[in-house]
Amino acid sequence: MNVAENLDAINQNIEHACHRSGRKPQDVNIIAVTKYVSTDTAREALQAGIKHIGENRKEGFLEKYNQLNQEVQWHFIGTLQSRKVKEIIDYIDYLHSLDRLSLAKEINKRTSQKVKCFVQVNVSGEESKHGINPDEVLPFIEALKDYENIEVAGLMTMAPHIEDKKVLRTCFQKLRELRDNVREKQFSHAPCSYLSMGMSNDYSIAVEEGATHIRIGTKLVGKEF
Ligand SMILES: *Cc1c(COP(=O)(O)O)cnc(C)c1O
Questions:
Q1: C-alpha–C-alpha distance, residues 175 and 156, integer Å
Q2: Residues 87-130: pLDDT tens digits?
Q3: For the chain, what percent of residues have pLDDT higher than 90?
Q4: Do the beta carbons of residue 152 and residue 182 sit within 8 Å?
């Protein structure tokens, strides 16, 4: 695995996808998902120019956070159990998995600073997926105004694990429409300008459909465990 070469290839694909859709590559942030690799490999990603690290478990997050003392934005991308909030919330720059009011309540109680959150949406409707239903997005976000430490930075989804490009595209388009609906409301606690969508196998389509944050593991840093 040569992380720098992988990043070059990904940047080229982003450029092409932006060209096709009239977007600017600098509006797309690459989050290196390091959950399957060592801290050394994560460091390689930073040396190659990565500015965002994503982890989905408390232990992996804290390990990387404590060992990589560089200018990095820290993203927590996995399901966050309420009882673990207090151990990591002050180290997280962006939480990608806000999907219930009980979690918002716990976050609000355990920190005194604003936490930028993505509301996770289950666009595809798969049973196995976390996230709130598309028709609950607006009422959910309205209800979040009661928690002064929560800021809704955007929406996040995980597309189904399939090859069908049409289905993937529809999923990403739906998330963008939902984001636009929220943004129109101009809630002060929910600027909701970002879209966290796209992983190793579908990020080009996600970028074409407006992704501002793509979460890439395997195709960038590989899989060591
Ligand atoms: C693991 C993970 C990713 C990265 O997956 P790859 O297919 O390895 O790029 C992205 N988002 C979430 C939420 C993940 O858990």
A1: 8
A2: 999 999 999 999 999 999 999 999 999 999 999 999 999 888 89
A3: 95
A4: yes
Structure tokens at 207: 């970028």
Would you say 46 and 4 are in contact if contact means Cβ atoms under 8 Å apart?
A: no
Binding pocket residue ranges, ligand 1, CB within 6 Å: 33, 35, 56, 77-78, 158, 199-200, 215-219
Q: Whose CA is nearest to atom 12 of ligand 1?
A: 77
Residue 216 belongs to domain spanning: 3-221
Total-model pTM: 0.98
CA atoms within 13 A on the CB side of 62: 9
Alpha carbon nearest to ligand 1 atom 10, residue: 215
* Other C-beta atoms lying within 10 Å of the C-beta of residue 218: 15
Q: Which residues of 143-163 are buried (b: 16+ CB within 10 A; e: fewer)?
A: ebeebebbbbbbbbbbbbeee
Distance from the CA of 204 to the center of ligand 1, in angstroms? 15
**CATH code where residue 87 lies:** 3.20.20.10
Ligand 1 centroid to residue 216 C-alpha, Å: 6
Structure tokens at 194: 């970002």
Q: Which is nearest to 212 in space by CA: 9, 8, 32, 30?
A: 30
The residue written with tokens 């929406």 in the block is 155
Domain count, the chain: 1
Atom of ligand 1 nearest to the CA of 201: 7
